Amino acid sequence: MPTTSLLLAWQLKGKRVLIVGGGDVASGRLESILAAEALVTLISPRQGLHSKTLGLLQQNPDRILYRDRDFSATQDLEGIDMVLTAIDDTNISRSICNLARERRIPVNVADIPPLCDFYFGSQIQRGNLQVLISTNGQSPKLANIIKKQIESNLPESVAKAIENVGALRAKLRERAPGVGSDVGKKRMRWMVDVCNKWSLEDLALLDDQGIEKMLNLGWEKGTVISTSEAGIPTSRFKLPEYTLPAVAGFLSGSLITCLAVIARRR
Amino acid sequence: MPTTSLLLAWQLKGKRVLIVGGGDVASGRLESILAAEALVTLISPRQGLHSKTLGLLQQNPDRILYRDRDFSATQDLEGIDMVLTAIDDTNISRSICNLARERRIPVNVADIPPLCDFYFGSQIQRGNLQVLISTNGQSPKLANIIKKQIESNLPESVAKAIENVGALRAKLRERAPGVGSDVGKKRMRWMVDVCNKWSLEDLALLDDQGIEKMLNLGWEKGTVISTSEAGIPTSRFKLPEYTLPAVAGFLSGSLITCLAVIARRR
């Protein structure tokens, strides 16, 4: 029986990640690590580099320290906050893992689950929204299929909505500063009310003027104003989902009945 | 601008997690940590314990080491693999965070993002499927709303499908053992083919006999058999989504036209 993992959003900004290996898997790791704004040390002989790895090296010379050689020894782990290996040699992988664990550096060894302190799963990114789908090692392929299903169902407006709510929250904190106090709780409650009252689609349409109005006419009076009060074009009228098939059914029912009546009359 | 996180499935089985605090937030942390099969040390004066925390303590006496006192000193961090604090005192939180970081123990301080090596987000669990939704701190409430949306769209069969694919994979590994070799790649390709050919719904219906047939009639011949060959009841006939409104539309169109014709005849 697989174990439930603890899913976490790990913070790597300014941290240094060691990647051992430069092949296809390593290039994927490198990409996620760079996206998380980490500094990278990549150790791998140049002849083993995948074209994607090479491309990332060339695009990020200031963020990747590249060593054109194999992993050599303990000093390669100095100042390292996380270790990822993606090489074919299981023995070297195992010894890197041991060295990292002795130093309490979190480590992931591609393809050898018992040597991993953490797993990667299938991931979705849309602006500030990140979604991780894990099957706890049962089926990476199903994780990928479920990811695509989730992705296709995510509303278009979701990234913009999150961005605007983040901006509203930042402006609110300027206007009513303080942490851990009553004002903090009051801010949190109001933000929750905003997210409950406004749809994702409406939040995505919020602009600077709208944010000002929400604060001036809403927050100051302890209420959440409506979209129209915030100057957001009143919700686009949306037909219920089943309108089209119902109307098409109605028209064809009517048409066929007409034809039947005409046919009988002749 | 918020930073992209690295979303990870952290493995805590057999590791020890220190939780400082016993209130509402701490009880939620405790719940996730226990689900990940970790051992827990919980430090918090008894009078501050939330009823949920108390309940979890009573249900898991063998997995939680409880200290009825405040966090005292360095030795509280001995043998600890992860630290979570959820207390009101910001200064104590900060000093626990510093102590943990000196020892390279990953730490999360509730409500103080800069003191967190990682964040929790909104989570979904369905059997072996786990989904993490993070807005990178922009809006926990929106993360929760998006979580509910994703959850309501997940097919019912998803957990069972993952369980069955895991079982199929384990049986396949028994039949064709070996790691890192060609057989490993062949296994992986076949599993991918299975997941591509069979729907989640069909995978969820797979039983022991079906698994045997997939291996005997499929794997051994380098192919993926169909659901009917595996003895799975042929896909339940499903009406297209729009059938009902279309039929209802058709009937009412026909009925109204009939009535109109009858009315004109009089």
Description:
Chains A, B: This is Siroheme synthase. Two copies of one chain form a homodimer. The first copy, chain A, has 266 residues and is α/β, with parallel strands linked by helices. In chain A, 46% of the residues lie in helices and 15% in strands. The first copy, chain A, contains nine helices and nine strands. In chain A, strands 4-3-2-5-6 form a five-stranded parallel sheet, with helices on both faces. A two-stranded antiparallel ribbon of chain A has the order 8-9. In chain A, helix 1 packs parallel to helix 2. The model of chain A has no long low-confidence stretch (mean pLDDT 91). Strand 1 of chain A pairs antiparallel with strand 7 of chain B.
Task: Find the CATH topology of the largest domain in chain A.
Answer: Rossmann fold
Q: How confident is the prediction overall: mean pLDDT of chain A?
A: 91
Major sheet strand order of chain A: 4-3-2-5-6
Briefly note the structural class of the backbone of chain A.
alpha/beta
Give the DSSP E fraction of chain A (strand runs of 2 or more residues): 5-15%
Shape of chain A: flat
Largest interface: A-B, 86 and 85 residues
What is the C-alpha radius of gyration of chain A, as a whole number of Å?
27 Å
User: Percent range for helical residues of chain A?
Assistant: 40-55%
CATH class term of the largest domain in chain A: Alpha Beta
Distance from N terminus to C terminus of chain A (CA atoms, Å) equals 74 Å
Low-confidence stretches of chain A: none
| Annotated CATH homologous superfamily of the largest domain in chain A | NAD(P)-binding Rossmann-like Domain
Helix-strand pattern of chain A: EEHEHEEHEEEEHHHHHH
